[in-house]
Design a protein that fits this description.
This protein is α/β, with parallel strands linked by helices. The protein is built from eleven helices and 13 strands. Residues about 15-30 have low confidence and may be disordered.
Length: about 300
Amino acid sequence: MLTTLLRIPAVEGEQPEDICSNAVGLFCPDNVRTFHGDPGSHVMYISKSFGSIKLELVDPPTQEERVLFAHHIWNSGIQMAEFISQASDETNLKRDKRWDVRGEAVLEVGAGTGIVGIAAALAGAEETFLTDYPSQKILSNLQSNVEGNVPHTMWERREVVVKGHEWGVVTDEFSKAYANHFTRILCADCLWADGEHYGLVQSMVHFLSLKEDVQVWIIAGFHTGRAKIVSFVDITVQAGLEVEAIWERDADGNEREWDRDREDKERNRWFVVTILKRKRNLEVSERERQQRYYASMLMQKSNRHT
């Protein structure tokens, strides 16, 4: 089970029932904990490929920053980190090469603690940018996790970079400098806020390279709600992306086909795994529709800031 890859230190004064609650999935298989850790503490991620990775959890000072949920580690992030780390291990005969980031320009959106981006950097990405909402507290914690787990030479040479980025805001210097730059975009458990879907998709399309074989990787837990995930997938298609692969997986590694209408009886156990790519050879009418779509997204983003 994914949750066995984490070590959560006991908190002083913690009662036995509190400790057991962190392992609820071991006792009640239908009730898997979807997030881990407490603000201001740390969690150890035990990677099969890279050993122990210590991840500090930010203690957000304001409610606005707290509702970003960057102060937990989520199962979707653990799963993506595992996919990426195992794909780089050539001794693993069962590795899924689709998740190999070696030689890729990688962007993680909604990085939180950085578990996915750190795994990508250690797995051999040519460059890795970890981004999250431009909160000084969140970004400082993210930078600290990068510096604590990635060789100094990598971030000193700016092979690994932490940047603030608000989804849908693509007119700042960072966004303009790295437009159509990244060959892999990573997104783990970022679909819970459906009001941000348009901005998130706009950022993905803006930063995604125009080269062949570029991809966006998304893993999202069904605790988010299946309807929100279905809506997000539909938005990506409207924006000029297409689904290369999509399936469902649980915390134990069991897999099943994607079903837009399935009733979720174990929503904490399951998540959806999606690989997107750019559509090619768009018809003129489809390009015009995309232009109207982008104009609509910009208007929505503008309205939220007025």
